[in-house]
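Hi C.,

You asked whether I'd gotten around to modeling the 289-residue construct. I have! Everything is below, sequence then structure, no commentary in between.
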Amino acid sequence: MDDAGATGAQAVVRNISDTARWAAVFRARETERPDAMFRDPYAKRLAGQMGVDIANTLPEGNSHAWAWVARTYLFDQFIMQELAQGVDMVVNLAAGLDARPYRMALPATLQWIEVDLPEILAYKEEILAKEKPSCRLERIRLDLSNSSARRPLFAELNRRANKVLVLTEGLLIYLATDEVASLARDLGANSHFERWVMDLASPGLLRMMQRTTGKQLSKVGAPFKFAPAEGPAFFTAHGWEPADVQSLLKTATRFGRPPFFLRLLGRLPDKKKPAGNRPWSGVCLFKKR
């Protein structure tokens, strides 16, 4: 990308919340496919023109749509699986422009809590003002980096539910290692917070992302940071153990989404050890230790 393009990227992406518009672009494009892995009829409105501009302006901003789509699909699958196992509250941290309470067939009694910064939640409320969620939806304005504010919130939510599923979709990669460890401990301190779904990248993939899209996001205060060398095992020391780990590439390959050369890689057997320098990303379901 030339200097003019780089300047344009900085002008379009203002802060970390704007990456939610970027993610919505890929949900909208997938929804338009006749063989869509999921359907999000709200994504196009939520992305808006700004979301399209971000995707078209960031370096490699459109290059890995298959990964975004596979991530959404896997989160959907884990959510439905855990609801069948008795989850009565979903806590979506850094919820961004997620529209699952509107687009998924959820129990009417389910408590769905969205936590994020005021600006992005206000924007979403405006766009979806005339829509009706399928469950009991509540939005909470909170800066999740403020541990003294999030701990009482988690404690209050813990009192209101019997079995809580936590979602952190597209969040952890923007946090430092000690911040992720602290969040894991804060979540684990609550007895009813039993399951946690997250997306995770390897150090090898993190370095690749830092050289492309990450350069521009760093300039607006949203650098990519977290990709533990231990992989999912990182969380064991902080009170959580992996129950299921699904590769984004393997999942996307099943649906024929990645380019052909990547689909060949997606058909190779999984390696047991952490990915390390190999580019890898996945969605992981964790259970309380």
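If it helps when you're writing up: The chain has one domain: 81-288.

Thanks,
B.
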